[in-house]
Design goal:
Blueprint lengths: L1 H17 L2 E2 L1 H11 L6 E6 L6 E2 L3 H12 L4 E5 L3 H5 L4 E3 L9 H6 L6 E2 L7 E4 L3 H5 L14 H7 L3 E5 L8 H8 L11 E6 L5 E6 L14 H6 L3 E6 L2 E7 H14 L8 H9 L7
Parallel strand pairs: 1-3, 2-4, 2-8, 5-9
Antiparallel strand pairs: 4-7, 6-7, 8-12, 9-10, 11-12
Length: 284
């Protein structure tokens, strides 16, 4: 199995290297065509490999995103650490704990002027005028992604969600909707205790209710509805797919839909098997 995986990775790397080279200006132009707003709040979920051969790697992608939103815009990346928490870790160091959601967010984690929220499982990193407001108090929110979190604040402010080289399986804002309608399957019954180390090296103890693991979702199945209602726009950036979502409309429509059908976002056993076979990883 390890040999097959290594061959698959090598084949993917060759395909990327042999493809067209993509630079910062080309990425920025593609983001503008997609509809990324200048001066807005943009939450980006990303897959570097899916974009093709990006000259300069993650820093180029980050630069293009910052160019697209301009100096009055605020760029946000998820810097989740739930994978380490699921493995038993109960210490979150905001400056040193790596994220588990890709090369671009990990590079953004050390970006100059970056502010990272203190939530031990679903932190975000943000740069821009609204960064401090977005991350403030995240660790004290009653849920990882619901009321009082950067995700809910972004939706309320009608920020945009960009899926860059990835699909709706990566859209953490679905968990925001689940939290806002108080989905019964979302959270563990009892809170976990964490030690948080802030940017000044100070230690804090927090009690956090984590997401219930092992609950399969069917987020990609929502794509047609979002496109048909004009909430999302589909395109390409580099060699990869891209989806841009209007935050406030997404919140309003998905809340109504989930209130009407509480199991809407849950996958059947067949859906779960298909997602595993396709290699998709659904976020916690």
């Amino acid at each position: 199995m390890m040999i097959r995986q290594a061959k698959r990775i090598a084949k993917q790397a060759r395909r990327i290297m042999q493809g067209p080279r993509i630079g910062r200006r080309a990425l920025e132009a593609a983001l503008h065509r997609l509809g990324v707003q200048n001066g807005g709040i943009l939450l980006a979920h990303s897959s570097l490999a899916a974009l093709g051969f990006v000259v300069g790697g993650p820093k180029t992608v980050i630069g293009a995103l910052l160019d697209a939103i301009g100096p009055k815009g605020t760029l946000v990346f998820p810097t989740h650490t739930w994978e380490w928490v699921d493995s038993g870790c109960r210490i979150f160091d905001v400056c040193n704990t790596k994220c588990c959601v890709g090369a671009i967010p990990e590079a953004f984690r050390s970006f100059p002027g970056m502010l990272r929220s203190l939530h031990p499982t679903h932190s975000v990193a943000a740069v821009g005028p609204e960064a401090k407001w977005l991350i403030n108090g995240h660790e004290h929110s009653p849920t990882p992604c619901g009321e009082g979190t950067p995700y809910a604040r972004l939706l309320e402010r009608d920020g945009q969600i960009l899926l860059l080289g990835t699909g709706l399986q990566s859209n953490t804002a679905f968990h925001t909707i689940e939290a806002l309608v108080e989905a019964r399957y979302l959270l563990r019954d009892e809170p976990d205790e964490f030690t948080i180390i802030d940017q000044f090296g100070r230690k804090h103890s927090v009690s956090v209710r984590c997401h219930l693991p092992g609950v399969a979702r069917c987020f990609p199945a929502m794509e047609s509805m979002l496109l048909n209602q004009g909430i999302a726009k589909k395109g390409r950036v580099g060699s990869g797919p891209a989806l841009l979502i209007a935050g406030l409309a997404f919140r309003n429509v998905m809340m109504r839909a989930l209130q009407e059908t509480p199991t809407l976002l849950l996958a059947t056993a067949l859906d779960d098997q298909a997602s595993r076979q396709s290699g998709e990883v659904l976020l916690e």
